[in-house]
Amino acid sequence: MQGLRHHRYNPIADGGVRLELTPTTTSPLSIDVAESTETRIRRLTSENPVIIFSRSSCCMCLVMKRLLSTIGVHPTVIELEEDEIPALNAAAGYSVSPALYVGGACVGGLESMVALHLSNSLVPMLVEVGALSKQLILIR
Description:
- By secondary structure, the chain is of the alpha/beta class.
- The protein has six helices and six strands; from the N terminus they run E-E-H-E-H-E-H-E-E-H-H-H.
- It has helices at about 35-45, 60-70, 85-90, 110-120, 120-130, 135-140, and strands spanning about 5-10, 15-20, 50-55, 75-80, 100, 105-110.
- A six-stranded mixed sheet has the order 1-2-4-3-5-6, sandwiched between helices.
- Strand 1 (about 5-10) and strand 2 (about 15-20) form a beta hairpin.
- Helix 1 (about 35-45) crosses helix 3.
- The longest helix has 12 residues, at about 60-70.
């Protein structure tokens, strides 16, 4: 994520969308290179209704992406480098990876997301931020 300026969205096999950040100087979506990682994380969480900060080699991240995809949500996924994990933990206020943000608020890691899902609280939260349509839920 460091020093990168352009968002490119790519579909991933589990139905989500992976946000890739690649260098460019002409993008209207440019990122201020001087922006701290913590500030960038806060900004990205406020700009995306559902976002997962992940690591590519993390099996819990894969489970989180698959559960959201199964219920019809295609989150923005940001894969962090190992040296960026402490900034994520600082932004969340506690140690978490993967980290799920819904409506700009940190929901937590996989365990928190599964607990919300099992208590039937996750879907209403996703509807509230516009990540799921009420009509879609009624059809399923």
